[in-house]
Amino acid sequence: xxxxxxxxxxxxxxxxxxxxxxxxxxxxxxxxxxxxxxxxxxxxxxxxxxxxxxxxxxxxxxxxxxxxxxxxxxxxxxxxxxxxxxxxxxxxxxxxxxxxxxxxxxxxxxxxxxxxxxxxxxxxxxxxxxxxxxxxxxxxxxxxxxxxxxxxxxxxxxxxxxxxxxxxxxxxxxxxxxxxxxxxxxx
Length: 187
Hints:
This protein has one domain (5-186). The protein is built from 7 helices and 4 strands, in the order βαββααααβαα. The relative contact order is 0.14. It has helices at residues 13-25, 47-56, 66-105, 111-125, 132-155, 161-168, 170-186; strands at 5-10, 30-36, 39-45, 158-160.
């Protein structure tokens, strides 16, 4: 039996608002958003997809079986949610993670040098920078997060965003460290 809900929890009100705004743009995704015991929670209803597919299976001209329709439907749902979350994680957590890496690895720099180096690093990471390399780096970072999110939703229908961003994205953190080290070597 497919899961009835996907539960996403977070502690940041800003991230919660961003996620709710993005989910409202997808009319096929039905969700409930609430603050429960100080934790912002989004519950996405998976059952709507199942109901929609029951209607589609009523058409005899369909050559795809009902069970594969359900499977494809959940893949679509998990992919949509993962794409939304990967975009938001880059937008919301990347600055915090890079600041954390900078302060831990380059603590010997003065405050002014650290500020300048931080600005330079953010310019390299900025996807709006008019460089093909910046866009490639952005897409690669998004792909790292997206793959990890899809793997997470393949195994479970629950996610704590803060825990996931800081502890489960080791490939993403290593990639950011490499970018920071290369930027520092040119700095």
